Amino acid sequence: MTLKTLRYPGWHSLALAAMLLFPLPVYSQVTLTGAMLFSTTSTGAWNNYSELNTVGGDNWWDLWLALNPDATSPVNGPSDAEAGISIPLQVGKSYKYYFFGSGPCCTSSECFTALNLFLTVTVPPPGISVFGALNSASFLPDGNTTITLDGSPVAGPGTSFYNSGVVIVVLGGYDAPSRESARRRMPTFEFSPGDSLSFFGSFSLRVFPAAALSLSPVSGSGTKLTITGSGFAPAETVDIFAGRIGATLLSTPTTDSSGSFTVTIRGKYVPTAQETGQSGTGIIAFALETTDNGKSAIVVLVALQRTALAQVLADRSAGVLVFEKGVVSDASIEAAIRPFRKDFSLQSFGVVAQ
Fold it and tell me: Is the pTM of this model over 0.70?
């Protein structure tokens, strides 16, 4: 009998929420009606400093948008009275905007900055709210205390996408370099060259129809995840990602004639029903335990013939540990796994196959 113990870091993808990407034509649109940029704490909380917005006639610094990094194709401005925006966002399209601003935004002591986007309406709360460190393209949803276009405190929605019920707008990118990397100099209330460094960065949006998605199980860990979708176009290919856009691609199902699909995603090397219980062939049994952080799994696979585990034993993927019972000592296996499961013991872990 051959026994194999596996730590597989990709296991956690079976317990994460999935995000849908599916460009489809002829749907309603939403409107980007405002943007607010400001500094935050490391947890995304508004710290009452460095506010810029797309509203004219108030006391906040103006936030200018353009279609290119040299600001030669401005979206709003050039005067303070023209700082407002009303940008239709159509399903199936992507948008990228470069922002510029004056004022003391985000100095070295204020190294986190937030972006609030208002969709369809300008009243609270923002439809999208994220924050991230300066000089970084990474960002997180902001559910902490944030602000409206007029600077009033409000709870953040804690999401990087907006769902109108018909259309979904996803923030695909948010990059906020420091002021020292600014491309232009401009005064406080005018979108034109000035005598001070301007805060510079960009954000991008993608727009999709609001189809429905359900998961089973909705949380926890297990050997498989079943994903069911509806409300798509017939024969449409759907990209399903773990956690966020651009992360691990879990599956690419194609919808049926009603615009629906069901797909089952299994853990790596988890045997199907057809592979188990067959006398003398294939993997005849398996068992698993999660690691202490719940993000990985320790799996034992049992087979009567070594050839049934050939693919597993040959796996050299980054972060995957493979041990063959009888070739590697029990003590060595336990020592390698205990950093991930402190009480791990082969005496209490395994499966009996007859």
Answer: no
Query: How far from the centroid of its chain's Cα atoms is residue 162's Cα?
Result: 14
Burial class (CB in 10 A: 0-12, 13-18, 19+), 233: middle
DSSP SS3 for 181: helix
Q: Are 192 and 102 in contact (CB under 8 A)?
A: no
> Among 155, 132, 125, which residue's Cα sits nearest to residue 143?
155
Q: Does 333 or 246 have the greater pLDDT score?
A: 333
Mode of pairing for the β-strands spanning 283-290 and 140-141: unpaired
| C-alpha–C-alpha distance, residues 122 and 148, integer Å | 8
SS3 annotation, 329-340 = CHHHHHHHHCCC
- Identify which has the larger pLDDT, 82 or 354: 82
Q: How far is CA 23 from CA 94, 166, 207, 214, 236, in A?
A: 10, 13, 8, 19, 9
Do residues 38 and 247 touch, judged by C-beta distance below 8 A? Answer: no
Of residues 124, 129, 143, 145, the one with CA closest to residue 203: 129
| Distance set, CA 93 to CA 70, 253, 282 (Å) | 23, 21, 47
CA distance 36 to 61: 10
Residue 153 is encoded by which pair of tokens?
């405190």
Q: Exposed/middle/buried for 138, CB within 10 Å: 0-12, 13-18, 19+?
A: exposed
Of 161, 157, 156, whose CA–CA distance to 208 is shortest? Answer: 161
Model confidence band, residue 189 (pLDDT cutoffs 50, 70, 90):
very low
pLDDT digit string, tens, across residues 13-41: 232 333 333 333 344 578 999 999 888 88
- Are residues 302 and 351 in contact, defined by beta-carbon separation less than 8 angstroms? yes
Using CA atoms, how far apart are residues 236 and 256, in angstroms rounded to an integer?
8
Place of tokens 């353009």: 66
